[in-house]
Amino acid sequence: MYARWVPTGLLAWPLVAAAIVLLVSAPRAKYVALLATLVEFALSVPLWWQFAPEGGMQFLADYAWIAPWGIRYTVGVDGISLFLVLLTTFLMPLSVLGSWSYITKREPGFYALLLGLTTGMIGVFVALDLFLFYVMWEVMLIPMYFIIGVWGGENRLYAAIKFFIYTFFGSLLMLVAILVLYFHVGRATGIYSFAYPHLLANLGNLGNLGWWLFGAFFLAFAIKVPMFPFHTWLPDAHVEAPTAGSVILAGILLKMGTYGFLRFALPFFPTVALSETVQVVIVTLSLVGIIYGGLVAMVQPDFKKLIAYSSVAHLGFVMLGIWALTLQSVQGALLVMINHGISTGALFFLVGMIYERRHSRLIDAYGGIARVVPLFAAILTIVSLSSIGLPGTNGFVGEFLVLLGAFRTYPVATALATTGVIIAAAYLLWALQRVLFNPLDKHENEKLTDLTPRELAVLIPLLACILWIGVYPKPFLTRMEPAARQLIEQVRGK
Amino acid sequence: MSVDLSIPRELLLALLPELVLTVWALVLLLFVAWRHHTVRDLRIAGWLALAALASTAVAAWWLWYNLAQPAGLAGMIAIDDFRWVTDWLYIGGAALTVLISFAYLEREQLVAPEYYVLIIFATLGMMLMSAGEDLMVIFLGLELMSVAVYVLAGFDRKSPRSAEAALKYFLLGAFASGFLLYGIALIYGATGTTNLTLIGVQVGLGGTGVMLPAGLALLLVGFAFKVAAVPFHMWAPDVYDGAPTPVTAFMATGVKAAAFAALFRVLTEGFAHAAAWQEIVWWLAVVTMVGGNLLALAQRSLKRMLAYSSVAHAGYLLVAVASGKAAGTAAFIVYLVAYTLMSVGAFAVLAAKGRRGESDVLIDDLAGLAARRPWLAFALAVCMLSLLGFPGTAGFIGKWYILIAATSAGHNVLAAILVLASVVSAGYYLPVIMAMYMKPEPSETAHDDVRLGRLAEVAVAAAVAGLLLFGVWPNRLLDVAKSAGDSLRAPAAPTAPAAGS
Question: Is the ipTM, as predicted for this complex, more than 0.85?
Answer without folding.
Answer: yes
